[in-house]
């Protein structure tokens, strides 16, 4: 059991670590996403670096990383929900602190965890897509703060899994997953949270303002 859990976590981490935004921006725009905007490899910065469709493609690929990590764990250990939980949380960890990005830049970095977090949640409970995806779209494109999108989606998933566990006898392990990934998302977004508090957070979507391609804080 311990070996299977560690194996699922390792596989989830390596899968989550794949910097899809880096790949897509490099392929389609011949640019280095780690030197543009926030330097993150997630969908929002991919949209800055490569345009809307590259950003959406990155977001979808990141979602698939989380989904696939959990799906693989479910196929290999169908009844072991803790193993599924470990795989999903590890995918978010890998996305946020990628070993591949470390080899590219010398620092453990990546995205903010939203894509793989939502993807793993969908693998646990497919209707989670109807909750998290609209939240991300509204907060990114209408409210204009990607960091709030990530945090709000994570909290909404945690609340969803808590309600399901309390009232529908769904696995508490899913709530534990959502609580862990909310902490992981918040940890990755600490600088953004501080800028939100100060009123200096950079806006995206309809409110985005063009800036130079320097690495921002």
Strands, helices and their partners?
Elements: H1 2-17, H2 20-29, H3 43-50, H4 52-76, H5 81-96, H6 99-105, H7 114-124, H8 128-143, H9 146-167, H10 172-188, H11 190-198
Helix pairs in contact: 1-4, 1-5, 2-3, 2-4, 3-4, 4-5, 4-7, 5-7, 5-10, 7-8, 7-9, 7-10, 8-9, 9-10
The biggest sheet amounts to:
none
* Unreliable residue runs: 212-217
What percentage of the residues does DSSP assign to strands (E)?
Answer: under 5%
The number of helical segments is 11
Question: What do the pLDDT scores average to?
Answer: 93
Number of strands: 0
Please characterize this protein's 3D structure.
By secondary structure, this protein is mainly alpha-helical. It has one domain (2-207). 72% of the residues lie in helices and 0% in strands. The protein contains 11 helices and no strands. The longest helix is centred in the first third of the chain and has 25 residues, at 52-76.
Briefly summarize what is shown.
The protein is mostly helical and 217 residues long. Helices cover 72% and strands 0% of the residues. The protein starts with a helix and ends in a 19-residue tail after the last helix.
């Amino acid at each position: 059991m311990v070996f299977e859990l560690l194996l699922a976590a390792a596989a989830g981490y390596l899968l989550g670590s794949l910097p899809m935004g880096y790949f897509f921006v490099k392929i389609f725009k011949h640019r280095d996403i780690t030197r543009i905007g926030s330097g993150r490899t997630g969908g929002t910065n991919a949209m800055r670096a490569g345009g809307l469709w590259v950003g959406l493609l990155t977001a979808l690929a990141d979602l698939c990383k989380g989904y696939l990590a959990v799906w693989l764990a479910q196929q290999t250990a169908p009844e072991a929900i803790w193993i599924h939980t470990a795989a999903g949380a590890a995918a978010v960890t890998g996305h946020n602190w990628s070993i591949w990005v470390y080899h590219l830049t010398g620092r453990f970095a990546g995205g903010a965890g939203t894509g793989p977090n939502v993807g793993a949640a969908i693998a646990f409970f497919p209707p989670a897509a109807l909750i998290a995806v609209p939240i991300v779209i509204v907060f990114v494109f209408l409210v204009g703060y990607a960091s709030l999108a990530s945090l709000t989606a994570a909290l909404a998933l945690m609340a969803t899994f808590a309600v399901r566990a309390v009232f529908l006898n769904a696995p508490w392990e899913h709530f534990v997953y959502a609580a862990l990934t909310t902490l992981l998302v918040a940890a990755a977004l600490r600088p953004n949270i501080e800028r939100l508090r100060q009123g200096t957070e950079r806006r995206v979507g309809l409110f985005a303002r063009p800036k130079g391609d320097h690495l921002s804080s």
